Amino acid sequence: MFVKDVIGYIECWSPPEAAMKSDSTGLQLGDPGIRVTNILVALEVTDRIIDEAIENQVNLILSHHPLIYNPLERLDTTSWLGRKIARLIKHDIAVYSAHTNLDAANPGVSIELARILGVQEPRFLTTPENRWMKKIAVFVPASHLDAVRDSMTAAGAGNIGDYSNCSFNIAGTGTFLGGEAASPSVGKKGNLETVDEIRLEMILPEWKVKAVVNAMRAAHPYEETACDIYNLDNYDVNFGFGAIGEFPEPIPLHDFIETVKEKLGVKALSVMEGPATQVSRLAVCGGSGGELAGEAWRQGAEVFIAGEIKYHSFLEFEDRMTVIAAGHYATERVILPVWTQKIQDWIGDSKISVIETKLLTNPVKYII
Fold this sequence. Notes:
Helices cover 29% and strands 27% of the residues. It is α/β, with parallel strands linked by helices. It has a 6-stranded mixed beta sheet with strand order 5-10-12-13-14-11. Helix 6 packs antiparallel against helix 7. The longest helix is centred in the C-terminal third of the chain and has 13 residues, at 335-347.
């Protein structure tokens, strides 16, 4: 297995196109063509994480926070960043980062944060930043409709939320006249042919267009296929930021605050208590996500939790909604076991181990 294979799997469910435009994601360092020994999953790449990778014979680190966020103007190996890059290169360790695209995915940071805090079936709080949906329409003889549709579905078309194989089919009539060099699968060249066809429509994300078109052509009986690809103004409901959902039963607010501390492993929280004494609907955003507090309130959450909240956001929602800042690290670390297990399950029985870091890399300490 090669680094590029692992990247390909990650980007099937956490594509870089889902990241915010200003973000830095993807292969940060290393050769995508090297064979993978072991994989280490961490929130960030620190000197101690590199030590852990070397100790465990890891040559691929998967990090949430990018190793290189801003463009490098020079590589000074005595600097904080340059020293780490030099060590990684010396030990042939590649680094791949999934940042806001992992926030926007399902499973992703905020969805898992909501789940670990007890929300049933959490959904995205807001839409993704970008609009990338396309629609493909292809004209297929009825005899090959199922084969073409199945092939396009397998390549990534027709997914809407929890539904797959979504398509629309309209019967119609197609005509063609094959030239001297043509080899039509229906009728004869030189004749104006009339064929009963189905207009097959499916939606797909922009990054799946090439694969879906290739799959369609491979299953289609025609020598030349007629298809249209449209830009849509739709958001992709399979991605978003933040999460919101309900508890099976209302929870007393003070009991829930203690649950947050226990589940996230923190000793202290910054809390601005709102008017509700019980929590039925919770909204969250892992990491820095305080700007989503307004959306949480508009959607009826009694409590909103993020990693970081500005002082004036606490003031804005005083007497309206309980707002909790639980720490950037604590609200994002919940994704590590999920990410680790997902990749290990995909690899299956293998000599390659996917290791969740055992180190706590939070630079902030709570002094009580």
